[in-house]
Amino acid sequence: MSTTKSAATRPQIHMIEEEADNLSDLALTMQSRFPQVSELLIRETSRAKLHTAASIPPDVVTMQSFVEFVDEGAGTRRTVQLVFPPDADISAGRISILTPVGAGLIGLREGQSILWPDREGHERKLVIVKVEQRVMRAA
Questions:
Q1: In 10 A of CB 74, how many CB atoms?
Q2: How far is residue 72's CA from residue 31's CA, in Å, rounded to a whole number?
Q3: Which of 11, 85, 120, 122 pairs with 35 at a CA distance of 20 to 30 A?
Q4: Is 6:123 a contact under the CB 8 Å cutoff?
């Protein structure tokens, strides 16, 4: 596996162990339909520091989190909920984990940023402003 400069300088990310397993399985299943995002998601899940659902810090982007972030490449600030593909609805602010932005946000903490490729392959800097967990996690 080749390592790009940005991959080498990506910040530490955190994931719930069960979510990381589910996301890896999803990425492998969807590899033929979404090869770029699937590869990125597999890389991210394999490098994440894993936690139980009860011990993950509350400022970490997990599935179902509400995330306020700045996309410096587009010059926009957005608040979205990170969801699995069947629940995605961009008009309602729910973005799929199988989008470049969704895969880039998972595991980051408030205040962190990451250089991440968009659909055209151009790197954009995503900066996490705020993370909110509205779904209670199982212990």
A1: 12
A2: 28
A3: 11
A4: yes
Q: pLDDT digit of tens for each residue in the chain (139 aa)? A: 333 444 446 789 999 999 999 999 999 999 999 998 999 999 999 999 999 999 999 999 999 999 999 988 888 999 999 999 999 999 999 999 999 899 999 999 999 999 888 777 778 899 999 999 986 555 4
Residue pair 134/66 in contact by the 8 Å Cβ criterion:
yes
Q: Which of 25, 69, 67 is nearest to 46 (CA)?
A: 25
Residue 137, CB-side half-sphere exposure with 13 Å CA sphere: 20
How far, in Å, CA of 37 to CA of 4, rounded? 16
pTM of the model: 0.86
Helix/strand/coil for 56: coil
- Burial group, residue 113, by CB count within 10 angstroms (0-12, 13-18, 19+): middle
Q: Is 46 exposed, middle or buried (0-12, 13-18, 19+ CB in 10 A)?
A: exposed
Please name the residue that has the structure tokens 């509350």.
58
